[in-house]
Amino acid sequence: MKELYYKILRYLYPTYKLTVSYNAIFGDADDTTYIVRKFNAKEEKYLKFQTEEGDTIEVRGAEGLNYRIEEI
After folding, report:
1. Are 16 and 69 in contact (CB under 8 A)?
2. Which of 17, 28, 30, 48 lies in disulfide reach of 40, CB 3.0 to 4.6 Å?
3. 35, 15 in Cβ contact below 8 A?
4. Distance CA 36, CA 2 (A)
5. Under 8 Å between Cβ of 61 and 48
């Protein structure tokens, strides 16, 4: 019964793993990873989202952002 509850909860409120890289190479030292509950704005040079803890974070990049979004 618990599994069904959690499946419904994940379907209605999905969480995402967001990896932001400030250059074109993923996997180097400048990458930052977040667990995201909700995206407020997704643009080419700007991201605004809420983390799993409830914090609101804004990420900006002058030359654009390279990011990956994976559903957990």
Report:
1. yes
2. 48
3. yes
4. 23
5. no
Q: Which two tokens stand for residue 18?
A: 């967001």
Separation between Cα atoms, residue 53 and residue 48, nearest integer Å? 15
- Is there a contact between 58 and 42 (Cβ–Cβ < 8 Å)? no
Give me 29's structure tokens: 């030292």
| CA distance linking residue 57 with residue 55, whole number of Å | 6
pLDDT tens sequence across 5-50 = 988 988 898 999 999 887 777 777 778 899 999 999 988 889 999 9
